[in-house]
Specification:
Blueprint: E1 2-11, E2 14-23, H1 31-38, E3 44-49, E4 52-55, H2 65-83
Antiparallel strand pairs: 1-2, 2-3, 3-4
Length: 85
């Protein structure tokens, strides 16, 4: 397991300076397979945006409860509108 950092990934509409993803080592023989099939959001460990840590060790450095509460309210509103169609 290692940390492979990809500079300048687009993360949520912002340009991340580094996105660190834990994976098996990238080798010439397996890089295409990693990129096409093996790597996804579940592999991301740390994200740095504009020099600030946005996520570290798969944990956000702020209270996520208000974000999840707002997302739940938005989802409920969406489902109510969908049910009325």
């Amino acid at each position: 397991m290692g940390c492979h950092c990809n500079p300048r990934d687009d993360v949520g509409g912002r340009q991340a300076e580094e996105t660190c993803a834990a994976s098996t080592p990238l080798l010439r023989e397996n890089v295409a397979g990693h990129l096409l099939f093996g790597m996804g959001s579940r592999d991301v460990n740390t994200v740095i945006v504009n020099g600030r840590i946005a996520m570290e060790n798969r944990t956000f450095p702020w209270d996520v409860a208000p974000v999840y509460a707002e997302a739940q309210r938005a989802a409920q509103s969406l489902w109510r509108r969908m049910d009325s169609l």
